[in-house]
Fold this protein.
Amino acid sequence: MRALVVRGRDATPAVEEVRLPAPGAGELRVRIRAAGICHSDLAMVNGTLAPAYPLVLGHEAAGVVAETGPGARLAVGTPVVLNWAPACRACWHCRHGEPWLCAANTAPVVARGETADGSRLHVTLGLGALAEEVVVPEHAAVPVPAGLPPERAALLGCAVLTGSGAVRNTARVAVGESVAVIGLGGVGLAVLTAARRAGAAPILAVDVVEAKRNLAVAAGATDFLRAGNTLAKKVRERTEGRGVDHAFECVGSAATIHAAWRLTRRGGAVTVVGMGGRDDLVSLAALDIFHSARTLRSSVYGSSDPDREVPELAAALADGSLDLRPLISGTVGLDEAPAAFDRLARGEGARWVVTFPD
Ligand SMILES: [Zn+2]
Ligand SMILES: [Zn+2]
């Protein structure tokens, strides 16, 4: 089958023929219908996550069960959304209600299958979903209702679960609370959508790129602000001089974490959704940490339980209460995926989704 493969750090991803094993005990082969290109895929290419190569990219996808291994319970033909952090339900975190921190999911890549020339192949986050097919453990596939548009259902597996979970589970945004979102990629836009569904107001969207303004408003922002030196002042002007109750950092850098901190009110909360680098240090004054009484915490996979929350989001998608169209810049075929990667790296648009013919 064909997959989007990167051969080494900073190499250009290319479509290759690869081979996957048949599904083993408790595993499924899933035919992919649509897969999003996420910023974490860029982190796989630029080496931030120190993965092994050759590597199949992709971890945000919707598909259909095509074959089941011994003992797997899902029926062939079941529509599923893939889960890149399937919970083992047995480790300390799983037993204490934190399945998103499952100890079984620490590897950025897993060895699975081989390339056409017989090299050992790896797959991103146990999935490698920018491909015609994946072979995954059954608990990495969440059943969803039939009939969802695949390019929207795919986003439930990463950007939307992450964004909605950050708002609902991590920050627990309440009706009428003020929100600022820094960084308007797929996840940032999903945070805006979740903040609107939570009844937040105002919802201030922040990006360095003016071209994100219309996307931000379509996704749920009440106001768009350009990042820059006067950002904290502009945010205070819109929050009776205090700063926002909640700031969401969706970039993954020390500079934007610091910016999020500065535009949050005393006693407010900063939620870090972006995945930053190992050597990018955030500097905060000890007095500021004490006196500001702010909370700084991260949201890994939306502090969510995908087995419960993906079906909830799928139901909202089906009944129209969750509109993901503003998040999708366009759909492309697998052969156009390398060009879509370049557009993502340049910060153009929101989510590019690769779709596969029926
Ligand atoms: Zn992702
Ligand atoms: Zn676990």
Summary: Residues 38, 40, 59-60, 158 surround zinc ion (ligand 1) (CB under 6 Å). The longest strand covers residues 27-36. The chain has a mean pLDDT of 96. Residues 306-319 form the longest helix (14 residues).
